[in-house]
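ZP: hey, is the zinc ion complex queued? I don't see it on the tracker
AM: it wasn't, my bad. submitting now with these inputs:
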Amino acid sequence: MSSSPLQVNCPTCNKLVTWNEESPYRPFCCKRCQLIDLGEWADEEKRIPSSGEISDNDEWSEEQE
Ligand SMILES: [Zn+2]
């Protein structure tokens, strides 16, 4: 049994990240941390509408009605 998954710490927030296909942003834990490390988070933040209408939440908004 030597199949224990390789894990790394997110460079941005130190959260433990499993190094496999389930972590597309590895070594970061999430896209946000990746953007922060790349220095692009500031730009991304300006684009986020205050209304909360983010395209990633399509599924969620469907359940609203
Ligand atoms: Zn992180």
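AM: back. The longest strand covers residues 7-9.
ZP: great, adding it to the tracker
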